[in-house]
Specification:
The chain is α+β, with helices and mostly antiparallel strands and 265 residues long. The chain contains nine helices and ten strands. A seven-stranded mixed sheet has the order 1-2-8-5-10-4-3. A three-stranded antiparallel sheet has the order 7-6-9, with no helix packed on it. β1, α1 and β2 form a beta-alpha-beta unit. Bound molecules: 2-oxoglutaric acid.
């Protein structure tokens, strides 16, 4: 079905908005869209850097049948993004993302790390992904679970209602696990190239269905309390050379550091 019914609208901001306003809405809804967080030429340049790596892998390149049930079959996922584009370091240290981590994570930790950087690519025919909470990767927290992970999904192509813009359930970061969303509670993060969906690790969301012949490319970066284990082993996925060449702040966020206990800079 093209032009699916739209659920609740996500709060939207522009990139030079007062961060306090952005974080107020993020705290309230669990997700917001920030338009133009990356200038369009930067978003295009990242996409150009990544494109040959995406072309080199098949659809459905995730590890096994079980994970494909979750990730999808018309999807490509890539990690080790610093090694594929040194520009990824600039994304990782983006001031608004750092401010988001300081706001949401700092109360619980002296430091934080990138859990994973991932290209989330949806091709023609990919269906709706199961709605899920990213922080469920660290299952052993008593509930209500505090904020342990905050993330950004950058649009490296336009995200439209028809090409798989991320589906999000505003407010669900505060729901009990038993509550299931009704159709009219599910919104969509439609946004132009360079924008980002910022979201809580506790909010229900999932990739949308791509009913077009366009490829939708999302660039995900998620930040985790430094005393939890990141999903990605950045040294293995990127290699030493790429990490050694990165600026110190990006090195630290990508866990290329001797300790997980450094105080905030
Ligand atoms: O593709 C998207 O928009 C979101 C994907 C996602 O949430 C995931 O794979 O964990």
């Amino acid at each position: 079905m093209v032009g699916r019914p739209t659920g609740p609208a996500l709060a939207r901001f522009v990139s030079d908005e007062d961060p306090a306003q952005v974080f107020h809405a993020l705290e309230r809804d669990g997700a917001v869209v920030v338009e133009g967080l990356l200038p369009e030429p930067v978003a295009r340049a990242l996409r150009d850097d990544f494109q040959p790596h995406l072309d080199a892998v098949a659809w459905c390149n995730t590890a096994d049948g079980l994970t494909n049930e979750f990730f999808g079959h018309q999807t490509k996922r890539l990690h080790g993004l610093l090694a594929r584009s040194p520009r990824f370091a600039d994304v990782v240290v983006h001031p608004l993302l750092r401010a988001m981590c300081d706001h949401f994570l700092a109360p619980r930790t002296r430091d934080y790390r990138v859990s994973t950087g991932e290209l989330m690519v949806l091709g023609e025919g990919q269906g709706d992904q199961l709605l899920h909470r990213d922080a469920d990767s660290w299952l052993h927290f008593p509930e209500p679970r505090p904020e342990i992970l905050v993330s950004a999904n950058f649009a490296l192509t336009d995200f439209t209602a028809d090409n798989g813009a991320t589906r999000v359930v505003p407010g669900s970061h505060r729901w009990s696990r038993e509550r299931k969303p009704q159709d009219d509670e599910v919104g969509q993060a439609t946004m132009p190239l360079g924008s980002a969906l910022l979201y809580s690790g506790n909010v229900l969301h999932g990739g949308g269905s791509n009913q077009t012949d366009e490829v939708r490319i999302g660039l995900y970066v998620g930040y985790l309390l430094s005393w939890l284990r990141p999903i990605e082993n950045h040294v293995v996925t990127n290699g030493l050379e790429a990490l050694r060449a990165a600026p110190p702040e990006a090195q630290r966020l990508l866990d290329f550091t001797e300790s997980g206990w450094e105080a905030f800079a």
